[in-house]
Amino acid sequence: VQEEKIFAGKVLRLHVCTMEGAEWLEEVPEDTTVEKLKERCLKHCVPGSLEDPKTVTHHKLIHATSEKVLTDTKTVLEENIQDRDVLLLIKKRAPPPLPKMADVSAEEKRKQEQKAPDKDAILKATANLPSRNVDRTVAHHNMRDFQTELRKILVSLIEVAQKLLALNPDAVELFKKANAMLDEDEEDRVDEIALRQLTEMGFPESRAVKALRLNHMSVTQAMEWLIEHADDPAVDAPLPGQTPSEATAEAGASSTEETAGPSSEAGGEEAKDELTEIFKKIRRKREFRPDPRAVIALMEMGFDEKEVVDALRVNNNQQNAACEWLLGDRKPSPEDLDKGIDTNSPLFQAILENPVVQLGLTNPKTLLAFEDMLENPLNSTQWMNDPETGPVMLQISRIFQTLNRT
């Protein structure tokens, strides 16, 4: 027996197919390289093709099951090919020819001809057209209607989600974890390094905290604000619309109620009451926080603080829109923001019948997203990009747009 046969690798029987429909069986040792296997296949299906050395490089072998292109330098064993596997012999696509200089020039000329006109060209072409005033209030009103309707949808969906989650035996534990994630709110945090820099300059800590919150944690801007308002009698007054001490006390009270209250109830009622307390606690944490700068700016115009906070809440903390609301008919009212959508309306029924929405309503994270968007509409983009809540919001948006067009 020859030495090569004693130490030869295992022989594999491989089914080889071509795009033209040819099919045959190749028997090769497992230590055969893919390039050698390719040469054998070409020799079998295209006689005389190996006279051109480029023929081998112009073809490729693909593993049919995994759809993987086999590497020429690797062996059959290294590519993890098994006995009776199916391989496809395919000719590679030829690269597109490089464009000629004449074609490039023609393409550039065509692009120049299709180029959008500049401002001077537009003015020249429209000089003789009669001027028309566009009613921008209509577009603004439609956008406001959309926001109002979306809020109503979220209010009603929160109620549905709470009822569904109350039936989940693990809902309390899930919400405890989710609630813990909300304990540290970035808006309530103060940059300790920035605060220390200001206090080392001699500014009082409470005044430095206020300056940093008003100036988005910028030390330079906060220092300028402190110097500018050094003689202001109201410099140490708390920020309008923010009462951190009261919020902390309220949160502590609710925590005490949460631990003490349910212990006196029986098993099922215990969990239900505890879940209700967690819902209330989450809502308190998600309460609307008006932009302090916008509050101060609007109050300086002569508006009452409560009116200003209501205006900012209705208009998503947008100062200009809030000013228009205060000077206009003040619609929608803050009370309208807490009203849900008609549960018998075709829009709400269509949303509830959507399978993606139905599945999402059983996820506690979806309820947290709805609560957050309800009180902080500017966070909608964050939840739209979330892999869990994004699909739900996308379906709600599509259904709303579809029914709004009909």
Automatic annotation (TrEMBL):
SMART domains: STI1, UBA. Pfam families: UBA_7, UBL_UBAC1. Residues 183-229, 289-329 form the UBA domain. Transmembrane segments: none annotated. Residues 106-117 have a biased composition (Basic and acidic residues). Pathway: Protein modification; protein ubiquitination. InterPro entries: STI1_HS-bd (IPR006636), UBA (IPR015940), UBA-like_sf (IPR009060), UBA1_UBAC1 (IPR041926), UBA2_UBAC1 (IPR041927), UBAC1 (IPR052476), Ubiquitin-like_domsf (IPR029071), UBL_UBAC1 (IPR057650). It is found in: Cytoplasm. GO terms for cellular component: cytoplasm; ubiquitin ligase complex. Gene3D superfamilies: 1.10.260.100, DNA helicase RuvA subunit, C-terminal domain (1.10.8.10), Phosphatidylinositol 3-kinase Catalytic Subunit, Chain A, domain 1 (3.10.20.90). One of its GO terms (biological process) is protein ubiquitination. Residues 98-117, 233-273 are annotated as: Disordered. The keyword Transport does not apply. Residues 245-261 have a biased composition (Low complexity). Keywords: Cytoplasm, Repeat, Ubl conjugation pathway. PANTHER family: UBIQUITIN-ASSOCIATED DOMAIN-CONTAINING PROTEIN 1. This is Ubiquitin-associated domain-containing protein 1.
